[in-house]
Amino acid sequence: MFQENELVNLFSGVAAALVLVFFARRMFLTSLRWFYGVFIAMLVAYIATVLEGFFWSGPLNLIEHAALAIAGWGFAVACWRLGHASAEDGRED
Amino acid sequence: MESWIAFLNILSTAGFVLALTLILLLLKGKLGVVSRMFLGLSVGLYVLVGLSNTLEHLEISAALDVYEDYFEILFLPFFLFFFFSFHMDQQFKAQKRVEEALFEQKERAQVTLACIGDAVIATDPSGRVEYLNATAEALTGWRVDEARGQTLGNVFRIVNELTREPAQDPVARCLREGHATGLANHTVLIRRDGKEFSIADSAAPIRNRAGQTIGVVLVFRDVTEARQLQRQLAYDASHDVLTGLVNRREFEIRLEHCLASAKKHDVQHTLCYLDLDQFKVINDTVGHNAGDALLKQIAYLLRGLFRQRDTLARLGGDEFGLLLEYCPLEKAVRAVNKIIKRLQHYQFVWEGRTFQVGVSIGLVVINSQTESISQALSEADVACYTAKDLGRGRLHIYHPTDSETAKRHGAILQAAELQQAIEKNLFQLYCQPVMPLNESGEHQKFYEVLLRLKGAEGQMILPNSFILAAERYGLMTNIDRWVIRAVLSALAGQTVSDGLRIFINLSGNSLNDETLLDYVREKLEEFQTPPSQLCFEITETAAIHNLEKAQLFVSEVQRLGVRVALDDFGSGLSSFRYLKRLSVDYLKIDGSFVEDMFENQNDQAMVAAIHQVGHIMGISTVAEHVEQKGVIGQLREMGVDYAQGYAFGEPLPLAEALKQNTAQ
Question: How far away is chain B from the Cα of A51, in angstroms, using its nearest Cα?
């Protein structure tokens, strides 16, 4: 079975995804692409966490941790890129 | 499976740790404080999650496991906050960049406006001043802080420089018409302290994005110097430099206006042609400076004698034109007589010498019957010419039926015909033999060339019918050149007998022609004629009038190998002193002494004296106008070298004479 916090995470993740999709066109996207990727990986991890309570617990747990690992390194790459981006890169596309 | 999960845990934790490290070290200054904080917190939370999982898997500690759920739940809001704060950050930065760019542009525009040479005034839509640049401040005398809010008329006072009426407000006009406008010519800006500047300007509307006029920008510049220069150039183009009077071009323009008004309104004007008497004498005897001074004084004297609307002009040389507008003949005659009287009482003094100067005036009425200005000028010239011939210092009114006038007019018409005759080769050359009177000259064949003009009906016109017109209208040099060319051309290719020499008469004008010598050189070369076959005759009077030039001409021509004869000797001042200065080859004794020497002993003595002096000076003598056989004997007895005249036969065409002398 799933835990309550996992559901909260999933719902807030989906809500956040909707908010981001809604505002994405207005936002400065260039430097944030990697962060979007990270966010998607996190969302995958949340979904996998919830689903593992119902079926394929082993593989979905593996997917959850793999997604988190991707998110972790994705964060590192995103921060590295942001750190080396020029001021111009922050502008709206 | 468990080991894989443990590995992935460690891997993700390492990634989050690395990310957190980068946030702390690398993103300082790259991200805003708030964005960095939220990003750090969200990543930090997952570092803790990873750490908790790792510690749990390794069974080291489960202390953090209690908080793991909170860490995970808190991650998302922090991450979202990061997104939004980053977005705000970027927007703030972009706005700041736009503001900086705007400020930079404004600064650039203001510095440009301050530095440009043109004056700029900007107004609001109601025409109140908002801005002046430094040049505008200097030209208007208003500082920008004083002028701001003032109406344009207060700051920018402009008038028409000719009428002194206020000029049209360019800003008001621009606002009314809604497009860029220029200022009328002759606009003068009056500065606050009263100083005036000629200006040229333009006004253009300033519009906002919606196309509404939000003000006007007025650009103007000081053109005082340019306008002064323009005025000076216009003055120079219409005035005579020496006398300051109106020149011929401007005079003709005014005459044209008078003619137009005469035709349109049937009014009457008067045109006078003034020619100074004795001017040439003064010019020749005391020099051109004296002549110039005389012209200036005459211009000054005459200036005060007419109304403001009348025009006195220098038409060239010593000729003046006077245009009396709306002036009937009687009134014009009174005015002109006043000039004659004034000049009769005037004496020109130069370097202690006093000269009497007079003026001959020709007058013609300009009315609706006058056809053209050239006709009017020609009639006035003819009338002036007539006045001169009738005794100088007088007025002659042109009337087409007047016989004197008609005679002179004929001469002027001839001038045009003469020009055509030169162009169409209508002149014919005849020649009269110059016969040797002593045995030593028997082998010599001399001829004097005589000029004839072929009339419209084929008749031969003698020179005394056209020389007067040719001299007056400056055609003599052209005729002389025509004769030289024609003689050389006739001689070219002919194998004439040795001792042939052609005497060619040159006018006084040709002596003044500095290019004649080059012309002679060029033609001698062109036709390959031996120079010794030519002899130029210059009259005594012409030589004395231009003694220095005559001396130079004689020596230069002789250097070429051409001979020179002094013609009509005895008719002028007959000073033997001149013979010393002019080393001529032949002395031609004036025909007036020779003609009557058979009966008149005085003439006989004169001829003998001239011949004797000539001989002593080594100059061969020629007696002209020998018409009686008896005279030939007398001349031979005296020892005169040559003689010419009808006693030796009629003149014959040059070609025929050359044919007779062709070497066998």
Answer: 17
